[in-house]
Amino acid sequence: xxxxxxxxxxxxxxxxxxxxxxxxxxxxxxxxxxxxxxxxxxxxxxxxxxxxxxxxxxxxxxxxxxxxxxxxxxxxxxxxxxxxxxxxxxxxxxxxxxxxxxxxxxxxxxxxxxxxxxxxxxxxxxxxxxxxxxxxxxxxxxxxxxxxxxxxxxxxxxxxxxxxxxxxxxxxxxxxxxxxxxxxxxxxxxxxxxxxxxxxxxxxxxxxxxxxxxxxxxxxxxxxxxxxxxxxxxxxxxxxxxxxxxxxxxxxxxxxxxxxxxxxxxxxxxxxxxxxxxxxxxxxxxxxxxxxxxxxxxxxxxxxxxxxxxxxxxxxxxxxxxxxxxxxxxxxxxxxxxxxxxxxxxxxxxxxxxxxxxxxxxxxxxxxxxxxxxxxxxxxxxxxxxxxxxxxxxxxxxxxxxxxxxxxxxxxxxxxxxxxxxxxxxxxxxxxxxxxxxxxxxxxxxxxxxxxxxxxxxxx
Amino acid sequence: xxxxxxxxxxxxxxxxxxxxxxxxxxxxxxxxxxxxxxxxxxxxxxxxxxxxxxxxxxxxxxxxxxxxxxxxxxxxxxxxxxxxxxxxxxxxxxxxxxxxxxxxxxxxxxxxxxxxxxxxxxxxxxxxxxxxxxxxxxxxxxxxxxxxxxxxxxxxxxxxxxxxxxxxxxxxxxxxxxxxxxxxxxxxxxxxxxxxxxxxxxxxxxxxxxxxxxxxxxxxxxxxxxxxxxxxxxxxxxxxxxxxxxxxxxxxxxxxxxxxxxxxxxxxxxxxxxxxxxxxxxxxxxxxxxxxxxxxxxxxxxxxxxxxxxxxxxxxxxxxxxxxxxxxxxxxxxxxxxxxxxxxxxxxxxxxxxxxxxxxxxxxxxxxxxxxxxxxxxxxxxxxxxxxxxxxxxxxxxxxxxxxxxxxxxxxxxxxxxxxxxxxxxxxxxxxxxxxxxxxxxxxxxxxxxxxxxxxxxxx
Lengths: 460, 460
Hints:
The structure is a homodimer. By secondary structure, chain A is of the alpha/beta class. Chain A has 14 helices and 17 strands. The first copy, chain A, folds into two domains: 11-186 and 360-452, Zn peptidases (Aminopeptidase, 3-Layer(aba) Sandwich), CATH 3.40.630; 188-242 and 287-358, Alpha-Beta Plaits (2-Layer Sandwich). Helices cover 35% and strands 20% of the residues of chain A. A five-stranded mixed β-sheet of chain A has the order 1-5-2-6-16, with helices on both faces. The first copy, chain A, has a four-stranded antiparallel β-sheet with strand order 10-12-8-13. A three-stranded antiparallel β-sheet of chain A has the order 3-4-17. The radius of gyration of chain A is 24 Å and the shape is globular. The relative contact order of chain A is 0.20. At the A-B interface, strand 8, strand 9, helix 5, helix 6 and helix 9 of A face strand 8, strand 9, helix 5, helix 6 and helix 9 of B. Chains A, B: Keywords: Hydrolase, Metal-binding, Metalloprotease, Phosphoprotein, Protease. Chains A, B: One of its GO terms (molecular function) is dipeptidase activity.
């Protein structure tokens, strides 16, 4: 794209060349970041003590009033990972195999945070003028519900955020392995725990098996009442507030470039619940889903322990979509489980709690930054992006939009097969490096759009 | 019971005095044994390597042909225990509180093994003639199905075991806190795993929630199909071979001294599935039961991880009673789960395995050693024992009886509230010390019965 030309290279060409030439340094830096086991998942210790919340970083570079100010949100905490969970390499030692950079946090979210820094540092190293003022908002509690962040954002609304023109989040994935995407919506999440308790101590199944209402039998019946084999949530009334599908919306889904067969293959799944692209994407993005995550307190190790757990806690969550109301969902789930439990006539004690509640988010895709991002994608990747939503929850999007009243854009770098939250998480070297270029191009496009809107220029 | 008398004390009185005087040494020895973390639960390492099976100890003391030979079976391995599972003290540091000796293995089975040794060593220390020849069979794999033991017993049938008159097992509990018991039967156990697999890697519930047959949903439905809220096993045909209750049997149950309310209180259970003593005991001893132990591969830690486990393994077991056939049970369970799974039309893969199968055991209570044990109990505790069965599985009883054709007796020392296999396992100091006396008295009663049966004596 940037072959020899008679004209001297422009600033962006020089930045791109710089990024290509220094890519091994950028990978090395990512390796150093991955080596930090930033698993801040559990601040609550078993003895009731709480650890301090990791500091939230606010930073800025430049304050030229003629330039737009873009704020990048990222997080440096990661999901817990242990090699014995099924990692082929040590999760905290970045390992490159066939152009794939394996390691916990490579794609979620250390790689994208560094790509933004790489873009900025390329301009600085070349002594090129940065086209935008830069702000950073970096936290360490995203995987645990971004504790304390909302309070800070509210406090800084008229401080740090007052000069911001748009906020960029790069904490999700393309829907394909090749084609870039822009994201304009995410699902919310209601995370529930349901505890069934007979007593605190476990029982021996020889000594007590046959005469107890066993908590696991109760819990399995409760969890089994939540969702049917077709993926439909069985909690009465749960679909009552889900926005109906419009004709316009259908056309957006039809336009998305998704090879269902390739998607299925790359996901290593034998068969999905739905066969068409539109059904699949709608069930990922605009319909709620319910997943059962596991059970705390039961026997979970390899081997054959003959225990009757005395107290077990089931964990499940419902991904929320517009216009579901979190408190209505909470009531519906509690009433449903109480009804199922009451039918069993068990002598155990059941407690249902909504441990976490996060709203869904929808952006206005006519905002400036969506146009700038589309143009930057065209420059770097030579294609239009898929306009997509994300089935997962990025609570900060909703928090930032509602609290600062600034526009938010999600500009992902990683590909569909990156395995965020899973074993063998990776980011492709190519995506990491081209992603650094994408952010550089985005700076320039934002500056162009900004100058075209500056009142003085428009008046001419 | 052994107050001052004009007669010089007999050998048993001296042994009892010795045991009382040296009880702190005996407790100290138990403390040293508990400190050995003999958790040999997992010989199969995650990389496929297997550890060697701990050695099986055969030992003997005395070979006087005029004396009976009693063989004591015990085990030194323990169930896994970690303080964070809910122990109030370190499980491997014996801690005495109010006459209770807390620690993993105190009652199951290190305490009883040591009580036997204490009895023998009291005779030796006093230079009193041991009334019996002693044999020991001590293993380290009881909690894992007594691997390799059956082979050894078979090999030693005409060697080590040929001179044995009876085999004593003390690996279970009284049914009350005060009244001793003799045990003449145990349940067997069929331990099943049911694996549901979509893929080896986990999924993120945001990225995949809504379009998958989630393995946890399948597994919860499978486990939920096994047993109803009243404890009845739902596997078709499972009750077909269970021995019907006879009138004579009913009377045995009626004679047992059990205060249901106290039993319920000591078990810290709000309500049992049955209200009468007979129903409770029959469901513990002579009817099968099904317990769900847990799930491997799902999220099991505290906190709120939003994972869709890719591959999960449910664990459950069925306690078997006469005359259930293990291979029939295996077929019934597999067919049932295959039927339930097929109805779900899931694209996942299900695999059911019977990981462990152990037969039930019933003794002939007219054998000599039951009479000797009853007399010894009368001497030490001043009461008749409860004649009971045990709901748990002591596979070695069946193996020893079938392979050596020798009579087996179960002579427990611990009380119903000892919490074997659970958090805060304990043995009472009183039971440990009186139990040491009980074994000494048992030696003497065995010798008396033996001499009354020696052909030369009977001919006189």
